[in-house]
Amino acid sequence: NPASEGPQKEVKKLQDFISANFYHCTDEILDSLGKMYAAGGEFTENIDVVGGKGTAEFVTKAIQVYCGK
User: Fold this and answer.
1) In which band, very low, low, confident or very high, does the pLDDT at 25 lie, cut at 50, 70 and 90?
2) Is the pTM of this model over 0.70?
3) How many of the other CB atoms lie within 10 Å of CB of 40?
4) Rounded average pLDDT over 12-41
5) Which of 3, 21, 59, 62 could in theory staple to 7 by disulfide, Cβ–Cβ 3.0 to 4.6 A?
């Protein structure tokens, strides 16, 4: 479940990592990144190769929940 505690903790870790290493990652930016993950193309393919088919969509849903969308 993308709204469960585990995935939500991982989304927080992702946001914190981006903020610490690249730029301040607001919820708005994170939500936009999540949309890119499941929009098709290389982002989706690469995420699904590592995590299995449907991983990009799952991550997108978890990010949406985290960002209150």
Assistant:
1) very high
2) yes
3) 10
4) 97
5) 62
In percent, the amount of the chain with pLDDT more than 90 equals 99
Residue type, 66: Y
Structure tokens at 48: 């699904």
The answer for residues whose C-beta is within 8 angstroms of residue 3's C-beta and 6 or more apart is 62, 65
Q: Cα–Cα distance between 51 and 45 in angstroms, integer?
A: 10
Tokens of 10: 């991982």
Judge whether residue 69 has pLDDT over 90: no
Longest dimension (CA), the chain: 30
DSSP state of 67: T
Tally Cβ neighbours within 10 Å of residue 46: 13
Q: CB of 30 within 8 A of CB of 67?
A: yes
Number of Cβ within 10 Å of residue 20's Cβ equals 10
